[in-house]
Design brief:
The protein has 6 helices and 3 strands. It has helices at residues 4-10, 30-37, 41-49, 66-80, 85-96, 101-144, and strands at residues 28-29, 56-58, 61-64. It has 145 residues and is mostly helical. Strands 1-3-2 form a 3-stranded antiparallel sheet. This is Multidrug transporter activation protein.
Length: 145
Amino acid sequence: MNNVATKMVVVPDIAGPGQEVMLDDRALAISEMSERFDVTLRTLRFYEEKGLLNPVRKGARRFYGPRDVSRMRVILQAKKIGLTLAEIRRVIKLVEGNGKREDQFKELQEICLAQQEILVEQKQMLDEQIAEVGQILTAFDELIG
């Protein structure tokens, strides 16, 4: 199974024993997390504010453990396919849930299918807009000569 729904479920397992999500068991400072995922510090703070990441705080510093690393992988993949924050929250809840894997797969598949429908509609609208712009440009070409 090589679809997005399966990838979203498999991603957290990357943090399991024997995998190299982190170079060692130490937590990542916010700057290291930012560099690892090529996101801004503000982005990490935003995801924390929204409850998607939960770094440990030591004084004013934030430290991200394996769970946050796994969550960040899910967040970025979900964001890449255009899911909203609410949908990302739902995906994380499913991925980290204790339910049956098959049920998780089915629900994640439903989320992805719904998103695919939205993206197809958006693509159709874009295709129509591109065709309209093409007609306008053709009209200008005829007017300009």
